[in-house]
Amino acid sequence: MDLAEVFNMFLTPEVKKFITAVVIVVGVLYLISIVWVIRDSYLRGSNPIVWGVISLVPFLGAFAYSMLRPPMLLSDRDEQDLDFTLKQRELMKYGECGKCGYPVEREYLVCPKCGTQLKNECKTCGHALNPDWKICPFCCTKVR
Q1: Which residues contact 53 (CB under 8 A, 6 or more apart)?
Q2: DSSP state of 22
Q3: How far apart are CA 32 and CA 17, in angstroms?
Q4: Tens-place pLDDT, residues 10-22
Q5: Which DSSP string corresponds to 46-100?
Q6: Cα(89)–Cα(67) distance, rounded to whole angstroms?
Q7: How far, in whole angstroms, is CA 24 from its chain's centroid?
Q8: How far apart are CA 120 and CA 22, in angstroms?
Q9: Contact assessment for residue 56 and residue 34, using Cβ atoms and an 8 Å cutoff
Q10: How many other C-beta atoms are found inside a 10 Å radius of the C-beta of residue 28?
Q11: What residues form DSSP beta bridges with 104?
Q12: What is the DSSP string of 96-112?
C-alpha cells in the first residue's frame, strides 16, 4: 500500500462532509469577525476602513483589533462626559468658608462651623445676597 491509498482510505464520504462543514463554519466565522471589527470600530470612533482592511488578515486582524481598540463606545464616552458635567454642576452648589474651609451651601448666610458671615441678607425677602450685588434679584429691593 502506498501513501495515496492510505489517504483515500481515510477520506470516506463522512469525513469529507465533516471537513466541508468545518471549512464552511470557519469561513462564516471569518466573515462575521470582519463585520464585527468594522461595526465595532465605527461605534468606538476608530477608522472602520483601516480596521476593515487589517481584519482581512484571517483571525489575526480581528485579534489585533480586539487588543488595540478604544476602551469605550462613543455613546458611553458621551454619557460619561455628561455625568461628569452634571456632577460638576452639583458641586458648584457648594463652596467653602473663607475662614475655616468648612463646606457650605450657596444659600448659607453664615458658616455653621465658625460663624463667619458669608453673605448679606435681604431686608425685605430674607434671601442670601452676594456682597457685590446692588439689588436683590428675588424682590428687586436696592441693597445698601
Answers
A1: none
A2: H
A3: 22
A4: 888 899 999 999 9
A5: S-HHHHHHHTTSTTHHHHHHHHHS-SS-HHHHHHHHHHHHHHHHHHHTEEE-TTT
A6: 36
A7: 37
A8: 81
A9: yes
A10: 10
A11: 95
A12: E-TTT--EEETT-SB-T
Looking up cell 480586539, which residue turns up?
66
pLDDT of residue 40: 95
- Give the other-Cβ count within 10 Å of 17's Cβ: 10
pLDDT of residue 92: 65
Alpha-carbon torsion, ordered 81, 85, 91, 95, to 10 deg:
120
Q: Please state, in angstroms and as integers, the Cα–Cα distance from residue 97 to each residue in 7, 87, 112, 122, 142, following that order.
A: 88, 21, 9, 20, 26
* pTM score of the predicted model: 0.56
Residue 96 CA to residue 128 CA, distance in Å, equals: 15
Is the Cβ–Cβ distance between 61 and 35 less than 8 Å? no
Unique residue bearing C-alpha cell 485579534: 63
Rounded distance, CA 141 to CA 100, Å?
Answer: 31
Closest CA to 51 of 60, 8, 61: 61
SS3 121: strand
